[in-house]
């Protein structure tokens, strides 16, 4: 056989190449389209200055979509077409942050700013002090993790150490790049950014209108709407709610070193992330106060909510020297605005009955805009507050709204100018009589009881207003988290006598809901499905949902972790309860009192028969040979998949999260390991290869098969 001359070899290669060439060309075309679309996304979502028409953009987008549909093997996860379309999830996994997400010390008092400045000056060893000033965005804090420039994970703040992975949902946010821009500066191997997700006021109002139209509960404020959108299991719902993300801090970075906050903000901007507007430097307290005053003045003109300004020391070296307390960094503080106040008139005072039977006086107001949100009711708290402020129907009052807090009546405002020659006093006769709390429950007519400052309807199980409140609480986010079961729906269900106690919720069918007002087919089905899905519920949610006095979400969680089953908790005496960390005599009394009451016990029993196993399952592998260890896998393993390795060690009692943190004990790195390995090395975490890992398994007597 004649040997082929070398040139022929090349020729042969070329002979096989037309296909490969074509494929390469296609890939290049696809990549060029993606680059162009990313460029226009950036101009539109981040710069707010689009260069082409929507129609021209759509044409490009459709072309990319069509090509990707034809060659699905060429679709990349960072393609602009891949923002929406992920499969709905069944839960949001918990993920450890790359670095703790601390919160900020905050104050409204300029004197606290002066004291902060003094402490900083003392702490920086005579270095020049430069601050960076930013708006404090009133949204939801998030961590974005980019590996090799590609968005890998987005995690809510959670408890600051770990949060919920909401990656698919964040991918739908136009101002979050799926791939960092590298035109101006190279991208780092790993970048963890902190930012705030928010909803513009205009979008918020449109969303609430749409919700009202379809008979759903509106959101109380843009922050709640944002949080709700971010925590969806189905990212197509998030995609339909217009969110934005502004980045303001680098939590961790590999392959880059920054010396100042200013430099990191510049880098974030260059990498295509949107950053807050009007970031400025200051060297004196006076400059800080002026910045604060200017933003306070202008904030009504913004289309999103801010609740103060953030003061941060610019030098990252000095920051490191100053360090943090367990919760706040010492190098930053939030300088909050005074709550927004407006004056309006009380048209009527109504009395509401809550789930615990407490009667709350509520001022129904002539609607007034307070910081971009229309307010038409404000709480007057209780009888004592009402008397102290002497608020009456028809009065002009000052109301305030601070972030999440329910609007409050601050004080009665006397007429602005006293008529010429008059004594200046408000003519008494022109005011209504002092408001008196009712002697009978406005809902069920039972005589009320006075309990300290509160007025109470004692008819706990016969008063429909209390039942409505209990349903809403049971279904609330920290309870069973049933969507579409807010005030309005609960009212309807109780008024039509479809629900007489909590357990009846599980008997609802779409047939009985359909004829009701507000219930379109889809809504009826969704509600029934939403309730049925909660037959299986985490014990902590169930306990919160019961509305046991003194038991909030965190106590409910502690009780669930400690007692592990509803039965065990119900059987617990006060002493056993008080053995749980954080539970004192007041709580133990409230809890035993609750379960000891036959009427409550009946409600709980009825629920328990309709729900599955109200227990905390034993964690698989508890007490196993790797108990207490945290092991992270990265790179390619030869003898098994990474998923299988994870399962194996979890079965043996270890935890195996996907990211490396200070708590990681061991990183098993196969070929191709990148930033996780580097991070482990930087943190001084032990790294071993697959052979070492297999040896460890053998040593601990853990079979691999
Ligand atoms: S810096 C540890 N900058 O305010 C310092 N925070 O408790 C990192 N926030 O939930 C925070 N705008 O999410 C920083 N420009 C800004 C901010 C900001 C809003 C949030 C933050 C946190 C809260 C403070």
Key terms:
D-amino Acid Aminotransferase, Chain A, domain 1; alpha+beta; disordered N terminus; binds 2-(butylsulfanyl)adenosine; 705 residues; OB fold (Dihydrolipoamide Acetyltransferase, E2P); 5 domains; Helix Hairpins; five-stranded antiparallel sheet; 21 strands
Can I get a quick summary?
By secondary structure, this protein is of the alpha+beta class. Helices cover 37% and strands 18% of the residues.
Word description of this protein:
By secondary structure, this protein is α+β, with helices and mostly antiparallel strands. It has five domains: 22-84, Orthogonal Bundle (Helix Hairpins); 106-336, DNA ligase/mRNA capping enzyme (D-amino Acid Aminotransferase, Chain A, domain 1, 2-Layer Sandwich), CATH 3.30.470; 340-417, Beta Barrel (OB fold (Dihydrolipoamide Acetyltransferase, E2P)), CATH 2.40.50.140; 464-615, Orthogonal Bundle (DNA polymerase, domain 1), CATH 1.10.150; 631-699, Rossmann fold (3-Layer(aba) Sandwich). It is 37% helix and 18% strand. It is built from 24 helices and 21 strands. Strands 2-11-10-3-9 form a five-stranded mixed beta sheet. β15 (396-401) and β16 form a beta hairpin. α1 (6-47) packs antiparallel against α2 (54-70). The two termini are 49 Å apart. 32% of the residues are buried. Mean pLDDT is 88; it is low at 1-14. The structure holds 2-(butylsulfanyl)adenosine. Residues 102-104, 134, 136-137, 141, 196, 248-249, 276, 310, 329, 332, 334 line the site of 2-(butylsulfanyl)adenosine.
